């Protein structure tokens, strides 16, 4: 199998409300930051792929608007997933492995501030039986948190630790939206939104964008002397019917762990697409990360751009490996309620 | 490159309102038909690739999540593609890419639209805060491009009527087609109301519910099955608005066609391609795409249509199944083109089979005539 590496990643500062900044104005700065860093232009890109969600923009074809941020004359090989941009990276990797491209530009963008994210997420459910009940994203997450607590798979203490650490780690991340430190007292004093979750357990409404460039092994060294390789990648979806899932058994993730033979890998760092505090200790235990530095960027609890946060987990892992003396990193991207669809990415720095 | 082929195509009955099935039931109908045709079981499917046009057409956000069970994806990788009207085609390309990458052996791909759940023209007419609101829908958007085509080449108005009649007569040979209009003729078409000058009601595609699925596998697993070998596939995009862009004859379409012809070793598409399923949602797009795809010189497309070259027994049959003009579940319409092309070279197109078809083309486009996906399939690998 052809090896593929990440050669660049850029993230827009995460905003609480991007206001009149439209999709193009969010995408262009990160794409051009990458181009400038690598000294290239769109002409050096063989394939372009983006991730976005029309419902966040409130109009069909968000990605068509977004494409105006990219040079498309002459026409380009381009595609789009209505998913987190982590899956746009996945598609781009397949294109490179197939031999149809040597370089790919990936970008994701999302503005959650103009709409009602709770209502939008409700529309991800079964449209005939569940969506009409308008289950909001926090209540859905709370169901899983409750199951994990009642089965003693995680503890309330671990959730508090996840929140405190996320806020502390936000200082490592110049693009973080929420940087205010939180202590146990203020956490415990906070009112529940949907028990057991309070506002600190939930990600902030966020606007932003990110971009990444990946390349085949041969091409990667043209861009950088230290590409970070995608050593393994796998993703699996679980049932849409929450009632038929055991929310304490991540069957999809377990299958990915087996596929990627992750049990044998000692990771130096991990970034997880954990939108809610309970997901941090849960996935740390599933992925055997108890002594692995996790979410040093603060993760989604300090900035959660929809359709980007998964790509950001990959990008932040890339940055950690790149700028530290580390070898193996694990990134996780997720989609759907209660961690329904999960991607694991094993990144490796070759010595 | 790893070689791949289509071993099964499955479609639903297309209709204005498929009230008998849910969205899950609709996609499953196409999937069951595709897997039956391919003679594969669920454990053979390594990944599922889902495509559809905007989520606002049904009001389900990121429907791969809700459909995970219905499309048999639970425990497997699933990818959801959305590239506007070209999505049915680009989803086919991405599904084949899964196999050609070497990561997967056999994949299932399915596309659908259940337009009766919503109102497409509403969904296609977004009100952006920073630009004037164009309540146009697709027909209103494309009509000016068509008027410009007619002006450039002085094309007579009956060409549009002729395509509308030809595609609907073909649809009478396809039991799955949405529109069956026995006795349709040019007078009937020209008597229908004008929707968007010069397009009349019967020169427009319908709004349909439906789904189309394909099973694609690598060469080593084809065995003794009927197969349509993928000889070339490509996508191209260009921006909605840019200086010098020719909306009538988009460069992205020209480049995309050249790419697949090069891959398939085709130098003269008019002679070397036996038949084509081309995305013609409004009658005039047949002559426009004949030119854009290099089947003839600029200005000659309408003349080919006029002399019946695109009829099922013509020199270059277009849309033997009845095309988008007869069935249009938008997200699936591109994959129906890709799948029908495969059926032709497998010799499985039944009453709308082109005799001795060996090489066929599938084509889809979308957005403001700016997104293209195409492939060439062949009965032989050589």
Q: Any descriptors?
A:
heterodimer; A: 351 residues; alpha/beta; nine-stranded mixed sheet; 12 helices; 20% strand; globular; B: 382 residues; Peroxisomal Thiolase, Chain A, domain 1
Q: What is the secondary structure topology, with strand pairs?
A:
The complex is a heterodimer of chains A (351) and B (382).
Chain A: E1 4-11, H1 23-38, E2 47-51, H2 54-57, H3 62-66, E3 78-81, H4 85-98, E4 103-111, H5 117-122, H6 137-150, H7 156-169, H8 184-189, E5 192-194, E6 197-198, E7 207-216, H9 217-223, E8 228-237, H10 251-260, E9 269-271, H11 279-286, H12 309-323, E10 328-335, E11 341-349
Parallel strand pairs in A: 2-3, 2-4, 9-10
Antiparallel strand pairs in A: 1-7, 1-8, 4-7, 5-6, 8-11, 10-11
Helix pairs in contact in A: 4-12
Chain B: E1 4-11, H1 23-38, E2 47-51, E3 78-81, H2 87-100, E4 106-114, H3 120-123, H4 137-153, H5 158-171, H6 186-190, E5 194-196, E6 199-200, E7 209-218, E8 228-237, H7 251-264, H8 269-272, E9 275-277, H9 285-292, H10 301-306, H11 330-346, E10 359-366, E11 371-378
Parallel strand pairs in B: 2-3, 2-4, 9-10
Antiparallel strand pairs in B: 1-7, 1-8, 4-7, 5-6, 8-11, 10-11
Helix pairs in contact in B: 2-11
Low-confidence stretches of chain B: none
Percent in helix of chain A: 25-40%
**Rg from Cα of chain A:** 19 Å
Oligomer: heterodimer
Broad CATH class of chain B: Alpha Beta
**CATH fourth-tier homologous superfamily of chain B:** Thiolase/Chalcone synthase
For the record, what CATH class of one domain in chain A applies?
Answer: Alpha Beta
Strand order of the largest sheet of chain B: 3-2-4-7-1-8-11-10-9
Judging by the overall fold, what is the CATH architecture of chain B? 3-Layer(aba) Sandwich
**How many structural domains of chain B?**
1
């Amino acid at each position: 199998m052809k090896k593929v590496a990440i050669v660049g990643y850029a993230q827009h500062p995460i905003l609480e409300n991007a206001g009149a900044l439209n999709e193009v104005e969010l995408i262009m700065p990160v794409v051009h930051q990458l181009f400038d860093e690598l000294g290239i232009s769109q002409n050096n890109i063989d394939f372009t792929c983006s991730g976005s969600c029309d419902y966040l923009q409130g109009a069909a074809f968000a990605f068509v608007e977004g494409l105006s941020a990219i040079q498309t004359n002459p026409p380009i090989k381009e595609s789009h997933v209505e998913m987190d941009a982590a899956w746009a990276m996945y598609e781009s990797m397949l294109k490179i492995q197939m031999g149809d491209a040597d370089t790919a530009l990936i970008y994701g963008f999302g503005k959650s501030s103009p709409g009602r994210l709770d209502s939008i997420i409700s529309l991800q459910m079964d449209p005939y039986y569940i969506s009409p009940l308008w289950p909001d994203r926090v209540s859905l997450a709370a169901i899983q948190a409750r199951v994990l607590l009642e089965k003693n798979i995680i503890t309330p203490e671990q959730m508090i630790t996840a929140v405190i650490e996320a806020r502390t780690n936000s200082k490592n991340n110049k693009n973080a939206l929420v940087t205010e430190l939180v202590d146990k007292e203020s956490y415990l004093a906070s009112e529940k939104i949907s028990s057991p979750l309070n506002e600190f357990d939930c990600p902030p409404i966020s606007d932003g964008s990110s971009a990444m460039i990946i390349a085949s092994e041969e091409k990667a060294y043209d861009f950088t002397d230290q590409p970070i390789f995608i050593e393994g990648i796998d993703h699996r979806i679980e049932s849409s019917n929450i009632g038929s899932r055991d929310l304490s058994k991540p069957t999809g993730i377990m299958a990915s762990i087996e596929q990627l033979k992750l049990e044998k890998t000692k990771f130096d760092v991990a970034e997880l697409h954990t939108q809610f505090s309970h997901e941090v200790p849960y996935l740390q235990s599933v992925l055997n990360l108890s002594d692995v530095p996790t979410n040093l960027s603060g993760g989604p609890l300090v900035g959660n751009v929809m359709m980007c946060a998964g790509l950001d987990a990959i990008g932040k892992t890339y940055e950690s490996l790149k700028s530290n003396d580390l070898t193996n990193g694990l990134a996780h991207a997720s989609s759907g309620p209660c961690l329904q669809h999960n991607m694991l990415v094993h990144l490796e720095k070759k010595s | 490159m790893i070689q791949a082929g289509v071993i099964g195509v499955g479609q639903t009955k297309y209709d204005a309102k498929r009230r008998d099935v849910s969205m899950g039931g609709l996609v499953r109908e196409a999937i069951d038909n595709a897997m039956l045709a391919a003679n594969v079981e669920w454990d053979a499917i390594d990944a599922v690739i889902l495509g559809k046009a905007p989520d606002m057409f049904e009001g389900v956000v990121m429907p791969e999540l809700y459909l995970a069970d219905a499309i048999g994806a639970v425990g497997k990788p699933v990818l959801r593609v959305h590239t506007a009207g070209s999505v049915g085609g680009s989803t086919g390309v991405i599904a084949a890419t899964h196999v050609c990458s070497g990561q997967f052996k056999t994949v299932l791909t399915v596309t659908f639209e259940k337009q009766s759940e919503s109102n497409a023209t509403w969904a296609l007419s977004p009100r952006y805060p920073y630009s004037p609101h164009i309540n146009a829908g697709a027909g209103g958007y494309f009509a000016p491009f068509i008027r410009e085509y007619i002006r450039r080449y002085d094309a007579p108005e009956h060409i549009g009527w002729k395509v509308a009649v030809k595609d609907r007569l073909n649809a009478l040979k396809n039991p799955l087609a949405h529109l069956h209009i026995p006795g349709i003729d040019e007078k009937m078409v020209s008597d229908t109301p004008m929707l968007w000058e010069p397009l009349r009601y019967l020169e427009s595609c319908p709004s349909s519910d439906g789904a189309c699925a394909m099973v694609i596998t690598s060469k080593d697993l084809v065995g003794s099955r009927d197969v349509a070998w993928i000889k070339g596939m490509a996508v191209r995009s260009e921006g909605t608005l840019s200086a010098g862009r020719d909306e009538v004859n988009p460069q992205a379409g020209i480049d995309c066609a050249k790419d697949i012809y090069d891959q398939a070793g085709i130098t003269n598409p008019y002679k070397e391609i036996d038949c084509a399923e081309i995305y013609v949602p409004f009658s005039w797009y047949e002559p426009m795409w004949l030119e854009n795809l290099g089947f003839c010189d600029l200005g000659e497309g309408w003349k080919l249509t006029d002399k019946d070259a695109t009829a099922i027994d013509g020199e270059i049959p277009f849309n033997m199944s009845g095309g988008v003009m007869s069935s249009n579940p938008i997200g699936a319409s591109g994959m129906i083109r890709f799948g029908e092309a495969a059926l032709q070279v497998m010799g499985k197109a039944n009453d709308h089979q082109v005799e001795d078809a060996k090489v066929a083309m599938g084509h889809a486009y979308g957005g403001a005539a700016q997104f293209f996906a195409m492939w060439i399939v062949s009965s032989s690998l050589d």
